[in-house]
Design a protein that fits this description.
This is Dyp-type peroxidase. By secondary structure, the chain is an alpha+beta fold. It has helices at about 35-45, 50-55, 70-75, 80, 85-90, 95-100, 130-145, 220, 235-245, 250-260, 280, 305-310, 365-375, 430-440; strands at about 25-30, 60-65, 120-130, 150-160, 225-235, 330-335, 355-360, 400, 410-415, 420-430. The two termini are about 25 Å apart.
């Protein structure tokens, strides 16, 4: 075992920063014939980029290949190997929906088919700086898939960075990613040293100093990472209408929106710009993430319950009780659908939202912990009845507290602004792991 990251074996997707602008496509496949499935993997491997290549120079397009538990079963992976994977991955996201807060309209009964079903076996994520480059790589993958009748395309979702560079809610996203030790990219927050590589990639020491549990055999698990995929529909008109109803004027409307998110729409954090937006700060990738929360314990600048502060509390928690670094992960958000025009308060019926992808070595203590303990619950901030005002499981009766002098303000009756349309737990092996899967035979099972 070596601590040096094998960047020639790790798939590029988890470690590669996305360019701006970019476009992408997510495709899900069903494997009806194991032999065809393994042959398809062999054909796809030359289309993949190792992490080293994209860290040296942004490619014209790059693809990530990942598998669900049922997908590995369908390819003929031995049961002994299947049993060695993380329990969350083996159970699948639909089976864990209640724990994750995916209930009501967000429950699996309402998910977009075939998300959450046993038919989802292989996930292909392709991204590129421009549409022509994306189309070329997707077409090469399509031609490979067409050669094998035992493989069906069962779902596709095109996505993109909106022209504004922001999410459908209007806020700049992708701020605050952790730097990963061994990758070579400097952290944008000097107060947060790079996290250990084993928090993201299997086969390396993590923040505990030990090795994360790794699937067997070694060739399959090493240099792989778990990938959490979620399609989230955003109710933008409801969000805008709620802010308009709560605010006395447009300035207060913008401030309340910033308080709920933890930063202004430009990306300027409340921790550095508590009173007014600072677009120049928001556009600076180094300055906009150079802050901590310890000097704001009461949340007078950024509420403790704001979305960004919940998702990454930084130094605001008691480190004797909670080590925030154990819950850091790579987050990638991509928009789908057209933006609701500025100022429109009525729902136009268009399906729009975010494809969220989380990558890490510990799906339980990373994605699931953050989702259940920090986003869905308020106990850790002393507000047990409050959940994340933007992405929490709201039912129309929730509250959100805005600390201020002389009297705090409490927003009430928060409706759901985000609805889960489906999701999957996947595993993205290293390139050698993919070759092992491609070379499986009936005898090796």
């Amino acid at each position: 075992m070596t601590d040096a990251l094998d960047l020639d074996d790790i798939q590029a997707g988890a470690l590669h920063e996305r360019p701006s602008p970019y476009v992408g496509t997510y495709v899900l496949l069903r494997v009806n014939d194991a032999h065809d499935g393994r042959r398809l993997i062999r054909r796809l491997i030359p289309l993949l980029s190792p992490a080293r290549s994209v860290l040296d120079a942004t490619p014209s397009a790059w693809m990530t290949v990942a598998f669900t538990y049922q997908g590995l079963q369908a390819l003929g992976v031995p049961q002994e190997s299947l049993d060695s994977f993380a329990p969350e991955f083996k159970q699948g996201m639909a089976a864990r929906a209640a724990e994750l807060g995916d209930v009501g309209d967000s429950g699996p009964d309402h998910w977009e088919e075939p998300l959450g079903s046993t038919d989802v076996h292989i996930a292909l994520a392709t991204l590129a700086p421009d549409q022509a480059s994306l189309d070329e790589l997707v077409e090469r993958a399509r031609r490979a898939q067409d050669e094998f009748p035992g493989i069906d395309v069962i779902w596709r979702q095109d996505c993109h960075q909106l022209a504004s560079g922001r999410t459908s809610f209007g806020f700049r996203d992708g701020i605050g990613q952790p730097a990963v030790e061994g990758v070579g990219t400097a952290p944008t927050n000097p107060g947060e040293p790079p996290i250990k590589a084993g928090e993201i990639v299997l086969g390396y020491p993590d923040e505990t100093g030990g090795l994360p549990p790794m699937p067997t055999p070694d060739v399959l698990g090493r240099n792989g990472t778990y990938v959490v995929f979620r399609k989230l529909h955003t109710r933008v008109a409801a969000y805008r209408s709620y802010l308009r109803e709560q605010a006395a004027n447009r300035r207060e409307e913008a401030l309340l929106g910033a308080k709920m998110v933890g930063r202004w729409q430009s990306g300027a954090p409340l921790a550095l710009a508590p009173d007014a937006d600072d677009p120049e700060l928001g556009a600076d990738p180094k300055r906009r993430n150079d802050f901590l929360y310890r000097d704001d314990p009461r949340g007078l600048k950024c509420p403790a319950g704001a979305h960004a502060r919940r998702a990454n509390p930084r130094d605001s928690l008691d480190h004797d009780a909670v080590d925030v670094r154990l819950h850091r992960m790579i987050r990638r958000g991509t928009s789908y659908g057209t933006a609701l025009p500025d100022g429109v308060l009525d729902d136009d019926g268009v399906d729009r939202g975010i494809i969220f992808v989380f990558a890490g070595a510990h799906p339980g203590r990373q994605f699931e912990f953050v989702k259940t303990q920090w986003l869905n619950d308020g106990i850790f901030i002393g507000a047990p009845q409050e959940s994340d005002p933007l992405v929490g499981p709201q039912d129309g009766s929730g509250t959100f507290t805005v600390p201020r002098h002389p009297i705090r303000r409490r927003l009430r009756d928060i409706p759901p602004f985000v609805v889960t349309r489906g999701g999957e737990y996947c595993f993205a092996p290293g390139l050698r792991g993919l070759r092992w899967l491609a070379d499986l035979t009936e005898e090796s099972r």
